[in-house]
Design a protein that fits this description.
Layout: E1 2-11, E2 14-20, E3 25-29, H1 36-48, E4 68-76, E5 79-87, E6 92-96, E7 99-101, E8 113-116, H2 122-125, H3 128-140, H4 144-165, H5 172-207, E9 214-219, H6 226-232, H7 234-240, E10 251-256, E11 259-260, H8 261-264, H9 267-289, E12 294-297, H10 306-316, E13 322-326, E14 340-344, E15 347-350
Helix pairs in contact: 4-5, 5-6, 5-9
Amino acid sequence: MILKTLRLHNFRNFSDEVIEFNPSLNIICGGNAQGKTNLLEAIFLLSTGRSFRTFQLKDLIKHGEKYFLIEAEIVKDLVAQTIKIYFDETQKKIQHNSTLIPSFTSLLGIMQSVLHAPCDIDIISGLPNIRRRFLNLHIAQWDPLYVHHLARFSKALKQRNFLLKNPQENIEIWEIEMAKSAAYLTEKRRKMLQELNSPLNDVMQILSQKKESIHLHYVSSISDNYLAQLEKSRKKDSILGVTQIGPHRDDFISYIDKKLVKLFASEGQKRTFTLALRLAEYRLLSDRIKSLPLLSLDDFGSHLDEARQHELKALIQNLTQVFITLPTVNNIWQDRQNDFISLESGKVVKTPVAV
């Protein structure tokens, strides 16, 4: 899959820019607040229907404007396709080729991608919902049935929570629905983490110069008979007004050399771990979709010494299409000067030359 062009109209600090990309490596340079991360944000939004920086679409509209429009031209399975997103604070329009699609969720699986950003440190240090989001977004990009069960579970959970506080009908109906979908969600999440351990350790061994090993462990709040658990906890849940057990409360734990990453890893180890996690996710997603997704690395290697930056460069050299951001040109990328895109105040001042 290749992202050929991206149009950004009134998006963040971009007024109206059309950017053509190299089919292999794209190195996006510029000082602070020039638009580097904004560009990656647009790619991520087109891929997942979500921003990795805000939950409010209105934050994406350029200051002083009333709407934004982003449009991508991609080539997937040798077929040219387009994706468009328009938002004006009152309505949104999402279009794939000539078809309007109903929701952002429908974008999942069209332009698969993996993004590594500095905020990924929250996967280690943040709340469990951030780790669940990591699992959900990965699986949702290749498994539409997972998306179906996630939506069905969320709807049933909302109904059960309402009935816990406002008993009006048979709550068992919604518990049965929850149990059906919970089984699918937990199985897929557990299996994903099991499969992620091998490529994660491969990458971590390279980035840590064979000094560190990693293990991920899924922590579920439910047993084999989730329906019985829901029935047993109904009285206590009614007092609290919320459902306490289920995949919406699950988590996973990361170990480095058999110690908790969250508690015992240094800041450098944590940063290296999140990078390795994303590169492992990329490998796993590639295997699932039998193709190479897009890979974006924001603030490339900022936490790595020069030797490890060279290792990282070698890891991504032969991938299909990669987008990385750098504040300034450095010696590591002197041999790839034709792949640079320079940004100033949301404008391209130098475009790449295909190699």
